[in-house]
Automatic annotation (TrEMBL):
Keyword Protein biosynthesis: no
Record GO biological process: amino acid metabolic process; carboxylic acid metabolic process
Organism: Cuerna arida
Protein family membership: Belongs to the group II decarboxylase family.
Full protein name: Uncharacterized protein
InterPro entries: Aromatic_deC, PyrdxlP-dep_de-COase, PyrdxlP-dep_Trfase, PyrdxlP-dep_Trfase_major
Lineage, top ranks: Eukaryota, Metazoa, Ecdysozoa, Arthropoda, Hexapoda
């Protein structure tokens, strides 16, 4: 239907939600919803979103919003410590990070960052006029069980992605990765990133993170 040209009463807006949206929605919060991911919302999250929407500022830089930027840094350090990351991953050293809109976006940003680091290093070593001249040689690795967002990130990043066959438990092992790296280095390619899967979409399989390094 056409977009409304005039304001509508709140009761009509809620009626549209109940009668036109809810009957056809995939209700991720329903207790009988067992697919994809666990319920991504909670009452504290609802309240947090309300406070964020009330403030309504853009936190893309410290100058734009000092408090929001510093809160982001603090919360990410909390999370890093909660999952046992070493100090090198925290903001007090050379680590830290930012919140992204989705896990797929995180994969893309991580790949772009790894690509930039690799290209800058190669440019310094080879004194090339253009960093992009090394781009065709870069290769990243993941399991065949990896999420589709990894392949999409490689396409956007213009790098080669080699999807490796996992073991019988659908786990990517260190020996499989090492063999692939040796093969690619012999071809003159430059490995720059490994993307481990910790809970695949298809079977919740885990790559052997300790072996992958």
């Amino acid at each position: 239907r056409e977009a409304p040209m005039n304001p509508e009463p709140w009761e009509d807006v809620m009626a549209d939600l109940e009668h036109k949206i809810m009957p056809g929605i995939t209700h991720w919060q329903h207790p009988h919803f067992h697919a994809y991911f666990p319920s991504p919302i909670s009452y504290p999250a609802v309240l947090g979103d309300m406070l964020s929407d009330i403030i309504g500022c853009l936190g893309f830089s410290w100058v734009a919003s000092p408090a929001i930027t510093e809160l982001e840094t603090i919360v990410l350090d909390w999370f890093g410590k909660a999952i046992g990351l070493p100090p090198s991953f925290l903001s007090e050293s050379n680590g830290g990070g930012v919140l992204q809109g989705s896990a797929s976006e995180c994969v893309l940003v991580s790949m772009l960052a790894a690509r930039e680091q690799a290209l800058s290093r190669l440019n310094e070593e080879n004194l090339s006029d253009h960093k992009a001249s090394h781009l065709p040689k870069l290769v990243a690795y993941c399991s065949m069980e990896a999420h589709s967002c990894v392949e999409k990130a490689a396409m956007i990043s213009l790098v080669t992605l080699r999807k490796l066959e996992p073991d019988s438990n659908s786990s990517l092992r260190g020996s499989i990765l090492s063999k692939a790296i040796e093969e690619d280095e012999a071809k003159g390619l430059i490995p720059f990133m490994v993307l481990a899967t910790l809970g695949s979409t298809g079977s919740c399989s885990f790559d052997n993170l300790e072996e992958l390094g």
